[in-house]
Amino acid sequence: MTEPGSTLSGGETGGRRRLVSLRRREEIISAAAVKFAEKGYHNVGMREIADAMAIRSASLYNHFSSKEEILYAICLRVTEEPVRQQLPLLDAPGTPAGRLAQLVRGHLLHLAHRQVEHLVGLHEMAELTPEHRDVINAHRRHYQRRVEDVINAGVRTGELAVQDVPLAALFLLDALNGFSRWFRPDGPLSAAAVADRYVHLAIDGLLRRQP
Questions:
Q1: Which domain holds residue 42?
Q2: Sequence-distant contacts of 122-130: CB under 8 A, at least 24 apart
Q3: Which of 96, 125, 182, 201 is packed most tightly, with the most Cβ within 10 A?
Q4: Residue 160: φ, ψ to 5°
């Protein structure tokens, strides 16, 4: 039952609270990623993360039970998130090469958006618990297998000329992920421009798309 004059039901109020909590959690992940990137995981404490958010440490613990749990959330952003957002591109209509081109473009634009988190994940993944590392590695393996499947489809149709599909998929993903190490948002090329050039290098070069 709502208070007199209130337009929100109990369910709506609870939903709004959950949304606010989710937004705060996402803000904490972003702030922690910046701190880890600047100073290293071991040199940053929960209090410093709380200070960066201008909240009390107790409030931080309402969202995350430990610093490692925050690191895990950072790593999920760059492994589980692409599985949800990019892999559907491989199921879209079109030729295998066309679908791979969309994945390459989407993958790089995602890395540009999550560059800090990706670099933290690359440098600090060893600090995760074995259980959390297993989850992250499972997302990576699934993503790579899906890329292999589409390259294989292109080979079967004669559109792509690849002799070693697993190695080609690994090489492709390594090349894409290396983007985070050198890309600068204020550089001469935008992320979209780099993505277009990577599509040409990957599809027409590495995978040798046939006319």
A1: 10-65
A2: 122/177, 122/180, 123/40, 123/41, 124/36, 124/40, 124/41, 124/71, 125/75, 127/41, 127/42, 127/68, 127/71, 128/68, 128/71, 128/72, 128/75, 129/68, 129/72
A3: 96
A4: -115, 145
Neighbours of 67 (CB within 10 A): 19
Summarised one tens digit per residue, pLDDT across range 44-94 is 999 999 999 998 888 899 999 999 999 999 999 999 999 999 999 999 999
Domain-embedded: residue 41: yes
> Residue 70: inside a domain, yes or no?
no
What does pTM read for this prediction? 0.87
Asked if the structure places residue 3 within a domain, the reply is no
